[in-house]
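Summary for the steering committee. One of the milestones for this cycle was to obtain a three-dimensional model of the protein with iron/sulfur cluster bound, which we needed before selecting residues for the alanine scan. The sequence and ligand used are listed below.
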Amino acid sequence: MKDLLRVNNLSIFAPTAAGEVPLVRSLTFNVSGGERVALVGESGSGKSVTARAIMRLDPGLRTQGEVLFDGQELSTIPEEDMAGIRGGGIGMVFQDPMSALNPLMRIGEQIAEPLAARGVPRRTALAKARQVLDELGVADAARRMWAYPHEFSGGMRQRVVIAMALVAEPSLLIADEPTTALDVRAQEQVLALLSEVSRQRGLATLIITHDIGIVAEFAQRVMVMYSGSCVEHGSVAEIFERPTHPYTQALLQAVPRLDGPIERLVSLPGSSPRPGARPVGCPFAPRCSQAVEKCRTENPELLTSGGHGPHEVACHLAHMEVTQNA
Ligand code: SF4
């Protein structure tokens, strides 16, 4: 299927008193029409900053590389065109629904706003807002669209944010930790809802998460991020069956099978290196129980791992195994 989103060699740099620090290094991936892709990793791995860079939400950061949406290079278009793509062709859902909503505005008006900004008459925009709330399972939507955000629970507020993202019929949804701020029951409901809406609408979705259980439930393909780089990439079925990078293996320790019970991210000893303090060689080496001498001097490239279907890994040991089996 055709690429809807194509990210080529994206690097992101933050200014500091000591000079620029790379937050993301040479990241390349695509999302096809209707596909559900996950970026997974610990806090500070570069996944959220990647999503924000795609949408140009952090003008203080410098980016390098290409971001193509539907064939259009986003990093060079004028800001007013980019504003039209935000909430238009690309919808976004953030972690904290409260910060995404205006507490003084009725939720129906907020959902209708992206359409009103595109010149849709108010009555039509409000009718569409009600229709999307219905689609998202908000009971008595005609009445409740006149409520304020504080009158909704956390899970219902996140439905409102999803409705705002969907009302202009985007072809791509970017969901950045969409369930992290919710209680466990609301997390399950919102994830199930996102999954159903994505499938029913044939909506391409890029989900950003630290939770490997969410990847198993939601995505078809996954990129595992560590210290600003992709360390493993492949179909969810392939990665869960044959995790090859030691970091992915550690993430999956508590999730042995796709059809088994879903559990949450295990905690790893140590922490990911700070941006700017990445070691020479493999960034995972200080935490890796399998590290060899080469790991401390050479950064492994992301190369095909030789599995079933697309599967790439950045690990010297995995590369040696592929060479031996060739
Ligand atoms: Fe571990 Fe070496 Fe592979 Fe890095 S390259 S993950 S340190 S074995």
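Key point for the committee: The first helix runs from residue 47 to 54.
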